[in-house]
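Now for one protein, fold included:
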Amino acid sequence: MSEPTDEGSPQLRQLSAEVDRIARALAKLSAPKASEPPPNILERRHQPDRRAQPDRRDTARAEMLSTIRGIIRARRMREQFFNADLFADPAWDMLIDLLHARLEQRPVAVSSLCIAAAVPPTTALRWIKRLTDEGIFVRTADPLDGRRIFIDLSDSAAENMSAYIQQIGRMGFAFLQD
């Protein structure tokens, strides 16, 4: 896809820089939460509190979240050494962000996903449309605010991303860990 010719304008460059700054700040803030995760690491429904009986799924979820946070940090760290434009990969950044959100059982609005993509909003929106058209993303209207749309991974995309992240974790990349 070709980029619009006005993406080089000073206003869009400034907006892109601000979106990038926010994305880096969000990546730094993605610390583990004190609450216990639900037993099924890919299920978004509310589950009863199972703190009294921790199991392998809780450990797997914690390990996966740790690996995802490491991947996000490593991706953003590259920008300290090279121009961020060299590494623009909005589809991957969105996939990682959506898996992270799914594991934490929090919805992701289109605007938030655009920030996570670390590219100009118009580029992020084109990728969201493409990945939705391909069945990788699922759009859902916010039941409380009809103007807002949430994006989630399809179940098959979530399973594939989960398998990939687990494989990365098994490879033992120490630099990806918390």
Summary: The first strand starts at residue 108 and ends at 109. Residues 56-77 form the longest helix (22 residues). The CA atoms of residues 8 and 14 lie 10 Å apart.
